[in-house]
Write a structure and sequence with these properties.
Elements: H1 3-11, H2 16-27, H3 34-82, H4 84-93, H5 95-100, H6 102-112, H7 115-138
Helix pairs in contact: 1-2, 3-7
Length: 149
């Protein structure tokens, strides 16, 4: 029996649209190596995609490392100029005053805290961690690892 005869028998079991698709597939010439060509194309696309994502990771990491370096110098400078270290030395040298005026002492520490420098520092740490996560998703560790797109 020909392939078209088998398809024509099954058309009555399905709607017209599916039947027309099956007839079109049966009549058309499909290359014998189509599956192999498709696998090669998918593999090439994955390799190119992995290279692009690795380049994006490299750019993100360089920018984040520069931001991290700058934020670290900012936070060290801000800690020195804000007087926060003086408050901590008071904690160890005159603990009685700290206990007596505890609420005011802790509010003074919070006021002298360089919040913007800390925000920049932790923001750059977050970007570095995100870029590492991006790289881990972009480049599989082994050939058996699966891509999660």
């Amino acid at each position: 029996m020909h392939r078209e005869d088998l398809i024509n028998r099954n058309i009555t079991k399905m709607n017209d649209f599916e039947g027309k698709i099956l007839i079109a597939l049966a009549v058309s010439e499909i290359p014998a190596d189509l599956a192999g060509q498709t696998r090669l194309r998918i593999k090439r696309e994955r390799v190119v995609g992995a290279r692009i994502r690795t380049g994006e990771f490299s750019l993100m990491l360089v920018l984040a490392a520069g931001g991290f370096t700058w934020a670290t110098t900012e936070i060290v400078g801000a800690l020195g100029s804000s007087g926060l270290l003086d408050y901590f030395s008071l904690l160890f040298t005159d603990a009685g005053t700290v206990v007596q005026f505890g609420q005011d002492f802790f509010l003074s520490i919070l006021e002298s805290l360089p919040a913007l420098s800390f925000a920049l520092f932790f923001g750059s740490v977050f970007v570095i961690l995100e870029s590492l996560k991006y790289l881990a998703a972009a480049v599989p560790l082994s050939k058996s690892a699966k891509f999660n797109y």
